[in-house]
Amino acid sequence: MFGEKVIELLKESERNRETLDQYNDEKIRQIIEEMHVLFKLNMNDANATTENKSLWTTVQVRHSALERNKRCLLAYLYNRMNKIKILRWEFGSVLPPDIRELLSDAEYDWFSKYSTNLATYMRSLGQDIGYNGIDLTENLRPPKSLNIEVLCLVDYGKLELEDGDVIMLKKNSTHFLPTSECQTLIRQGILKQIT
Amino acid sequence: MANNYLSISDILVSNEKVPCRFLHDLPKLGFLDPSCTEEDLKAGTSVEIPLWLAESLSSRRPPLVAVDLPKVYKETYREIFNADACTVDLHKLAQYFFELGCYVAKYDIKGEVATTLVNTFRQRFKMILSASVSTDSINALQPLSSSERDRTASAMASEKALSTWLKRGDSLLTTANMVANHRKRKRAEMEML
Amino acid sequence: MDEEQLDLSGEEEEITADVVLKTIQTSWQNERLSPEILPHRNDMVECMLGQIQHMERNINKLPKTDLRTSIHKMELSRIKYIICNYLKTRLEKIEQNCIIIINDEKQRIESGTNYLTPLEYRYAQEHLLNIEHHLKQTILNQVPGNMQVFEINKMSTVPNLQSHVFLKANETVHGIVLEDHFGDQDEEIDLEEGSQHILQYKFIADLVKNGKVQLI
């Protein structure tokens, strides 16, 4: 009750700093229940302090524990929010199902809102001079050459290029393509740059 | 430290235990002291409690506990650190040596903990810096504290990136970090099944 | 008279595009290297976007296999990268420090010295709202009564203005005060034009914003 459970939660997430874990709904529920228990104990003892003055210090100790639990829960969620943000920039606005599973419904809701906020901002860039917006999730690396050679890692299917050509991305096929059109697919792990 | 509220690393640091003496009776909180058999905690008991609780209780007016220095920051160890900090296994001894030390230093009226912290940091930083040029020397180092390990990892990553860039003249576009790591994890989990 | 005007206008266009690009590069560098968000350069960004449109139209007029096409396309792609990265860096700072930035910006808007574009400001507010809503829904509304407050002061992340930065002086600056936190030994230094230094950001923040120094 004095923060042990919530620390387990945080240690879990620190162990895997680079990836997102499954949302631990069960533990969070338990921690919130513990907080309610602490609160009730405090309510009872606060009423009894008129008879027993030293109970007041006990109430203060429990209060510190409540604050501690609150802080840790918020940190857990906030830390996950930061990782979920990165998901939008790396996977795009549609998450693969195995990633989607890792988020709670509320978190997916947040992801959608973040995505929408970002899209609204990007769409209105350059509006005054007739632009249709700029996709900031492209152009993430400084360009070194106009075309690059890539190896296709999975059976992706048809890809339509800007100039109208359609190419078939089959697993293990290689292609020589304009950098700008492969960037997203490379980031998503579908293509791999060779040479 | 207004900035640290949401920092998981700070939360873990403040979870470390520090020795304290309770200045008042604490009814119903006997469980804080694992060796206590009663329901109540008596004034004068010495218990090791997490830093967050110690700070909270010692900052009340009147203070409910008196905080003592953990043994790593006491005189005997201070002499070891001041003599040769580089031979100490910080991983085993004190994972969060520097961060916890910053918090604990204010309970040391003589200010010697602060001096030892700076001194130790300097010595070990030099050691880590000169070792980070090659992976062999890194592995030969005495085990490091948590924050030292992070710094070392990022130093090595920078070295690697720099030498790759110098050799190639540019860098390949790569799969995004999180995407790659998720795939790795998935593969590892599937192999376990 | 007319001929001169024609010549001048031809030169002017070149200088303008070049100057804009240089300014954007400088702003981009400063924005990437400074711990806090800097005043926006939206005028420059829009100007550059206009230039890009212009260049794209010209490129499309050339035959596909013309050598100049590749060169221009590379140039365009570089410029696009810089602009995107500049805007993205600003978004990152807004997301990380949104509470502080919104507070500061409220005051700055009143005096007309805003750092954020209206679009960025709306983004920041929406972002904060989303975070608050999520935390309230998931945690704060479920915990005991007196714990339900969204304590905005504790939740703010403040940029570390004391971090050290590399800088170059674009002109000579006198009398920069380096405060000494731990003692009374404040130092006062001068920066010669063209000299390079490492200093704590907070001492030269204003100089970055008014262009007297450049972060490198």
TrEMBL record, chain A:
<feature type="domain" description="DNA replication complex GINS protein PSF1 C-terminal">
    <location>
        <begin position="144"/>
        <end position="194"/>
    </location>
</feature>
<dbReference type="Pfam" id="PF05916">
    <property type="entry name" value="Sld5"/>
</dbReference>
<dbReference type="InterPro" id="IPR021151">
    <property type="entry name" value="GINS_A"/>
</dbReference>
<dbReference type="InterPro" id="IPR005339">
    <property type="entry name" value="GINS_Psf1"/>
</dbReference>
<dbReference type="GO" id="GO:1902983">
    <property type="term" value="P:DNA strand elongation involved in mitotic DNA replication"/>
</dbReference>
<comment type="subunit">
    <text>Component of the GINS complex.</text>
</comment>
<keyword id="KW-0235">DNA replication</keyword>
<dbReference type="Pfam" id="PF24997">
    <property type="entry name" value="PSF1_C"/>
</dbReference>
<keyword id="KW-0539">Nucleus</keyword>
<protein>
    <recommendedName>
        <fullName>DNA replication complex GINS protein PSF1</fullName>
    </recommendedName>
</protein>
<dbReference type="InterPro" id="IPR056783">
    <property type="entry name" value="PSF1_C"/>
</dbReference>
<comment type="similarity">
    <text>Belongs to the GINS1/PSF1 family.</text>
</comment>
<dbReference type="GO" id="GO:0000811">
    <property type="term" value="C:GINS complex"/>
</dbReference>
<dbReference type="InterPro" id="IPR036224">
    <property type="entry name" value="GINS_bundle-like_dom_sf"/>
</dbReference>
<feature type="domain" description="GINS subunit">
    <location>
        <begin position="45"/>
        <end position="125"/>
    </location>
</feature>
UniProtKB/TrEMBL annotation, chain B:
<dbReference type="Pfam" id="PF05916">
    <property type="entry name" value="Sld5"/>
</dbReference>
<dbReference type="InterPro" id="IPR010492">
    <property type="entry name" value="GINS_Psf3"/>
</dbReference>
<feature type="domain" description="GINS subunit">
    <location>
        <begin position="74"/>
        <end position="150"/>
    </location>
</feature>
<keyword id="KW-0539">Nucleus</keyword>
<dbReference type="GO" id="GO:1902975">
    <property type="term" value="P:mitotic DNA replication initiation"/>
</dbReference>
<feature type="domain" description="DNA replication complex GINS protein PSF3 N-terminal">
    <location>
        <begin position="7"/>
        <end position="58"/>
    </location>
</feature>
<comment type="subunit">
    <text>Component of the GINS complex.</text>
</comment>
<dbReference type="InterPro" id="IPR038437">
    <property type="entry name" value="GINS_Psf3_sf"/>
</dbReference>
<dbReference type="Pfam" id="PF22466">
    <property type="entry name" value="PSF3_N"/>
</dbReference>
<comment type="similarity">
    <text>Belongs to the GINS3/PSF3 family.</text>
</comment>
<keyword id="KW-0235">DNA replication</keyword>
<dbReference type="GO" id="GO:0000811">
    <property type="term" value="C:GINS complex"/>
</dbReference>
<comment type="function">
    <text>The GINS complex plays an essential role in the initiation of DNA replication.</text>
</comment>
<dbReference type="InterPro" id="IPR055221">
    <property type="entry name" value="PSF3_N"/>
</dbReference>
<dbReference type="InterPro" id="IPR036224">
    <property type="entry name" value="GINS_bundle-like_dom_sf"/>
</dbReference>
Automatic annotation (TrEMBL), chain C:
<dbReference type="InterPro" id="IPR021151">
    <property type="entry name" value="GINS_A"/>
</dbReference>
<protein>
    <recommendedName>
        <fullName>DNA replication complex GINS protein SLD5</fullName>
    </recommendedName>
</protein>
<dbReference type="InterPro" id="IPR008591">
    <property type="entry name" value="GINS_Sld5"/>
</dbReference>
<keyword id="KW-0235">DNA replication</keyword>
<dbReference type="GO" id="GO:0006261">
    <property type="term" value="P:DNA-templated DNA replication"/>
</dbReference>
<dbReference type="InterPro" id="IPR038749">
    <property type="entry name" value="Sld5_GINS_A"/>
</dbReference>
<comment type="function">
    <text>The GINS complex plays an essential role in the initiation of DNA replication.</text>
</comment>
<comment type="similarity">
    <text>Belongs to the GINS4/SLD5 family.</text>
</comment>
<dbReference type="GO" id="GO:0000811">
    <property type="term" value="C:GINS complex"/>
</dbReference>
<dbReference type="GO" id="GO:0000727">
    <property type="term" value="P:double-strand break repair via break-induced replication"/>
</dbReference>
<dbReference type="InterPro" id="IPR031633">
    <property type="entry name" value="SLD5_C"/>
</dbReference>
<dbReference type="InterPro" id="IPR036224">
    <property type="entry name" value="GINS_bundle-like_dom_sf"/>
</dbReference>
<dbReference type="Pfam" id="PF16922">
    <property type="entry name" value="SLD5_C"/>
</dbReference>
<feature type="domain" description="DNA replication complex GINS protein SLD5 C-terminal">
    <location>
        <begin position="159"/>
        <end position="216"/>
    </location>
</feature>
<keyword id="KW-0539">Nucleus</keyword>
